[in-house]
Amino acid sequence: MYIAKRFRKLNFACSKVSTLIRQYSTKMKKTVLLLLLLPMFMFGNTIWSKTGHRVTGQIAQNHLKGKTKRALNDLLEGHSLAFVSTYGDDIKADRAYNKYSPWHYVNYPLGISYKDSEKSKDGDIITAIEECKAIIKNKNNSREDRIFHLKMLVHLIGDLHQPMHASREEDKGGNDIQVQWFGQGSNLHRVWDQNLIESYGMTYTELAHELDKVSKKEVKKMQEGTIYDWVDESHQICGELYDSVKVGEKLGYQYAYNYNDLLFEQLQKGGLRLAKVLNDLFE
Ligand code: ADE
Ligand code: ZN
Ligand code: ZN
């Protein structure tokens, strides 16, 4: 009798403990999941991968004139363009920089040019690039201010060549178009920010080395035009990319095969054009 009672008590205690463990582990699971998802909310899914920005910076570095190299060496205190290229995204972790969020992209209706579009009162990637250039150029501005805007400029010329950053408003540059990437949830914006380039599995130095095998004639051709031409070019590509997927589509090897060349060309153009912008600025 006594033993049976003790046994029942023990049984009751055990089931209580296991319920507690279960509740605790559910809480733990929720906390871990939240911690894993937090960066997605913090960065709002709008970051062209560090690799992409660094490839652009590294390619540009190889095409600088002597005078530009000296000016950059002074302002960037010896750091490379690849190293500072991610600064524009790094500062997103600090809310004090929130006002720079609209600087990374522009949205306007497909089929019209940037110049003909209605401008956002918060600024966009084009007004931001113009502001950066003006501040860097004017030596009366503080050194600190010129350095900040130089690092932003390096970043923004990269973003300008991510087609989904010259996009349309209604789906936030493809952020609202859900797709799967090799079985994982993603969206059209993220495919172009990160998934494609990461799935290629090369480092930024390897990619920059491979993508910089361009003839002088091709370099000149790719450097033609202004930021107004380049944004319309990205915007037109973006229009084609909207047609490249259906909502919920399962993307993988075939999509990567179809679009790797375009991704590489955008990285190449970003790098060569960044060099052009910097050479013009410090000439
Ligand atoms: N948020 C809204 N539109 C965007 C775009 N085109 N790119 C990145 N973030 C955005
Ligand atoms: Zn993005
Ligand atoms: Zn950016």
Account of the 3D structure:
With 283 residues, the protein is mainly alpha-helical. It has a domain at 49-167 and 213-244 and 262-281: P1 Nuclease, CATH 1.10.575.10. The chain has 12 helices and 5 strands. It has helices at residues 2-43, 50-61, 66-75, 81-84, 87-90, 125-137, 143-160, 188-200, 204-211, 216-222, 227-242, 253-281; strands at 106-107, 166-167, 178-181, 184-187, 250-251. The strands form 2 sheets. It has a 3-stranded mixed beta sheet with strand order 4-3-5. A two-stranded parallel ribbon has the order 1-2. β3 (178-181) and β4 (184-187) form a beta hairpin. α2 (50-61) crosses α7, α2 (50-61) crosses α9 (204-211) and α6 packs antiparallel against α7. The radius of gyration is 24 Å and the shape is globular. Mean pLDDT is 89; it is low at 1-22 and 24-44.
